[in-house]
Design brief:
Two copies of one chain form a homodimer. Chain A has 241 residues and is of the alpha/beta class. The first copy, chain A, is built from seven helices and 13 strands. In chain A, strand 8 (195-198) and strand 9 (203-206) form a beta hairpin. Chains A, B: Keywords: Cytoplasm, Dipeptidase, Hydrolase, Protease, Serine protease.
């Protein structure tokens, strides 16, 4: 399995996916045809979203077709050499993927070795569920279960900072609530600018900022980046060997 | 109908519901028996949550029983003189209310004139859906439709401020996404410290900070507080006359 899961799309310098060029080139290898899933986009036209992504991938010599441009996106995904899932609203993404019947074909293709690249909502979609998204539940996806390509949860755009004076929950409090309701899971808080490169045997944490690992009943653990993480025997939990 | 919907539980001075004492006393009137719904609490024990709320209401001479302490919470709510719904996680709140069959009885009682007091998640529950909550979707409530006691959506803890450098969506962007997917609705962003006192004919906005009204295709409108708002003929939209 080959996954590239990014916290977010913007490089710290403000460039769109510029921090991910090398990682995208590496995971793509010799593959030159990608299928894009734009359904997390809500306030952006999917055509515009596609063009933005095509600009980045064309630099790397990769052609991108979008699932929203064809009458049979399942057939398109069956032929995909690379699957790319963009960020936006995770609920909108999951709703459309479920309604179009895309979840099984994405899983099958990725388990068969097709590289999966996702950022923000696209990283959430790779998790067992979308329960650790930061997004507003603007539409009902009719179930929170997602692709389950990785056995743990991600929290993209991870930070525990709050606007000055904010009295709502901090991010850490939200994740603690998730773990109180889902004690067997664990959550990796992935700060902006970081990403995971995942194979069958290990998880490579990359980017300049430490990630934060949350488990029920334990203090959060800071994971320095870069680092190679492994999965425990239950495959639920990444750890540094 | 008598509703008191607060953005949040903490007064600007840090006291628990202290800013709401007068408003609670006013809506309670001669009623001295309240039923509390603690199910938004996730990392707090419901007994502890009840005690915290009892402390506040006892100052006002109001007895509070909790729905989690009885074998038949529907029967308890059928006898309630006041219904109080606390904040926490909106998904957890809606899930438990749905599973326990509390939504119909709460609606019936409030439509029959029983005062409803809710803060944060408890204010979200009074809306047509929980789609404008800020909370993490830690559990699946099996549908986002809520009590629908008011015809518009609230966004509690409203602020458009973000932590420094944050590249995820701002609150205004999240609300714009909601409106893009739900264009017939409108959303009132209620800043911390503010509250609504709602009757059948009008909505009184209280507290020291302006609220923000969002509609699809329009610039957000700042509503100075305090103000009396009215509902349009379609009852979807509050406005200043």
């Amino acid at each position: 399995m080959k996954l590239l899961l990014l916290s977010n799309s913007r490089s710290p310098d403000g460039g769109y996916l510029t921090h991910a060029h090398e990682a995208i080139a590496e995971i793509a290898g010799a593959c030159k045809q990608a299928v894009f899933i734009p359904f997390a986009g809500v306030t952006v036209e999917w055509d515009d979203y596609l063009h933005k992504v095509q600009e980045v991938f064309s630099i790397l010599g990769i052609d991108v077709q979008s699932a929203h441009c064809v009458s049979n996106p399942v057939a398109l995904l069956e032929q995909a050499q690379i699957i790319v899932v963009g960020g936006g609203n995770t609920f909108n993404l999951l709703k459309h993927c479920r309604e179009l019947g895309l979840l099984p074909v994405i899983s099958q293709r990725v388990l068969a070795g097709v590289p999966y690249i996702g950022w923000s909502a696209g990283a959430n979609l790779a998790c067992p569920s979308i329960c650790t998204t930061n997004d507003m539940p603007i539409v009902d996806p009719k179930g929170f279960d997602a692709l389950g390509l990785i056995p743990f949860q991600l929290n993209p755009h991870y930070t525990n900072a709050s606007p000055n004076g904010h009295q709502g929950e901090t991010r850490d409090q939200r994740i603690a609530e998730y773990l109180a309701a889902n004690s067997s899971q664990c959550v990796l808080g992935l700060p902006e600018g970081d990403w995971l490169r995942i194979t069958d045997s290990a998880v490579q944490l990359n980017g300049s900022w430490p990630a934060q690992l949350f488990e029920a009943g334990k203090a959060p653990q800071t994971l320095t980046s870069p680092a190679t993480l492994y999965l425990d025997a239950m495959r639920l939990k990444p750890f540094v060997r």
